[in-house]
Amino acid sequence: CVTLDVQAACRDTTVTQELLKEGFHRDLLVKVELGEDAGGCAVAARMRLPPGIYVDPYELATLQQHNLTKAVLIPDVIDLEAPEYLARDLLVLLFLEPDARCSRCFRAAVPVHARYHRPAEGTQGALVVLESPEVLLCCCHGHLSAECWEPAEVDTPCSSDSAGPCQWHSTKHRPAYEEAMLRVPVGLREHSSLVCALTLLTTGLCSGLILAAACKYGHFS
Which residues form the signal peptide (predicted)? Predict the structure, then answer.
């Protein structure tokens, strides 16, 4: 688990990111503790995912049907098979749910998947850097402190179930944060000749076995 703590400059809004599970398929858990009461406000985390990691829109749609996760992907069409060096950044707006254990706390999780990277020399892992998410508030029936929050340019409704416009606000002061690192296994470039030779040998052997079986047991008119 990778933990990232961010302390905002205004009223101590705290953001925590945790990467759960192991391997290429993880869960990104985001927890926010606001510095002020946000009763009646929608809370979201805007995250920019680098090309090395992505959210599966089909998996996300299934989770949203069961009311397990609410999020908006930009763009909403993603090439799931593209390697890291052919992919691009992905913007995720993750809607957070109130935490019953804390009146000013919100949390949500979204599944993320690492992409395949180019083989490298002398290392078996590539680093994917996850920056701290931006905390956004949409208060349809409340008022935010002008000293701490300012209108944000986010063309997204207040929830994933709503189509109406919404005015989101973000913190005026950019919080100091540390970057979270995800290490993705990669192949060794010096092994490329061996891998190609073994792949060619295996392909030829399997093709020969299939051809032999077809000649022995096949019926040709």
Answer: none
